Amino acid sequence: MDLGKRIASQLEAATFERIAGVGLENAAVNRPKIERSILELGDVALGDGDSAVVVGAGPSLHRRDSLARLRKSGYTGTVVAVDGALGSCLRAGVVPHLVVSVDPHRERIVRWFGDPAMTAAPADDYFRRQEMDPAQAQDEVAANRALIGLVNAHGPQMRAAVATSAAPAVVARCEAAGIAMYWWNPMYDDYDKPDSVSRRLHRTNGLPCLNGGGNVGTAAWVITHAVLGKRRIGLVGIDFGYPPGTPYERTQYYPELREMFGDRYAEAFIPVDSPFVGERWFTDPAYYWFRTVFLDMAREADAETVNCTEGGVLHGDSVPLLPLEDFLAKADRRE
Amino acid sequence: MKEFLKGNYKLKTVIKEPVVSDTNSTDEFEKQALSRLGGSICFVSKKGFLWKGEDGKTDGPRETDR
After folding, report:
1. How do residues A86-119 score in pLDDT, each as one tens digit?
2. Per-residue pLDDT for B61 more than 90?
3. What is the pLDDT of residues A11-43, one digit of tens each?
4. Is B26 helix (H, G, I), strand (E, B) or coil?
5. Which is nearest to A167 in space by CA: A110, A115, A114, A210?
6. Cα-Cα-Cα-Cα dihedral sign, residues B39, A218, A81, A272
7. Which of residues 202-221 of A touch B (CB under 8 A)?
8. Which of A5, A34, A163, B14 has the smallest C-beta neighbourhood within 10 Å, fewest atoms?
9. Which of A214, A260, A300 minimises the CB distance to B43?
């Protein structure tokens, strides 16, 4: 088996090692802030009809101008965005009904909401290095300041589906911006096992546990069908990969792969053809795992999911490709 | 080391064998390294999408073979 695929096959267990400790610590800190369960969103009218668009922060979001096209369409269904796509959404004039945040990282994630504590460009090049939000890659301080204003202006119009693992700084930011928070636990492990972390966490706070598929984009999609009850879902910006020509050093896990494999790091990347655009994209072990899991989960979902990213590596029998306008037109006819 | 010190003499100094890294420490290194590549939320195979608690209710199929 190729190096990248071999690593990908081991990431289910590795992810627990990566996030369980800090996720549970954050859950304890966040406990006093928990007022509403995510299940309450099932009773809230978020957009018209039974369709939804889930917005990820992959490079196709900007390459295909997906958000401007979504806005232009006048789509009235539900829009669910991952935290990393919030800034792009608001700048494009798309105010998501729901924004999803799960990553427990204590310093980074609040930047997606505008970090009031940031006064200078940080040493951490996480935001400059990648394409998740190109505005953040230029003048980080100015982009952050502008985002604070946008999130404050639209906060009361939005709701947030916040995992108990989320960084306390994100929770404080949502609170300050007037974003109503609805809480859930990440499913950490098999809740049927006697020593289950998931079961123990549920006992402490009574919240449901959501199977997140490894990343916030998949978690947002799970919330959209399993909690909001949407039956037809279009994905934009959920690429799980990088467009051809992207330098390896601008990929999400480059520093880690470089450290693990030295000069052989490039062998960990996996090429995947993207038939919609006729391009050969590439992905890393983590994104390849996300892709495999998503395709498996989509087979089990009580919803039809189509990929309108017009790029990326997420496609298969359970997630067919469709131009965004075709999805929006069909959704309109049903509503 | 002992295999190189066989002879018709005895050493006064007791030579301590260095602790050879075993499979466990290799596994631990690999686990640590892989954990840096993991995701921001877990995925649990065959457990459905949403577990609502002790009454065992889930939303979506659960425990189906994939």
Report:
1. 999 999 999 999 999 999 998 889 999 999 998 8
2. no
3. 888 899 889 999 999 999 999 999 999 999 999
4. helix
5. A110
6. positive
7. 202-203, 206, 208-216, 218-219
8. B14
9. A214
What pLDDT shows up at residue B28? 66
| pLDDT at residue A60 is higher than 70 | yes
Angle between helices A66-73 and A324-334 (to 10 degrees): 30
CB contact under 8 A, B41 and A208: no
CB pair distance less than 8 Å for B51 and A191 = yes
The burial of A327, by beta-carbon neighbours within 10 Å (0-12 exposed, 13-18 middle, 19 or more buried), is given as: buried
Phi, psi dihedrals of residue A200, rounded to the nearest 5°:
-60, -45
**Residue B34 and residue A39: Cβ atoms within 8 Å?**
no
Say yes or no: B51 contacts chain A, CB-CB below 8 A.
Answer: yes
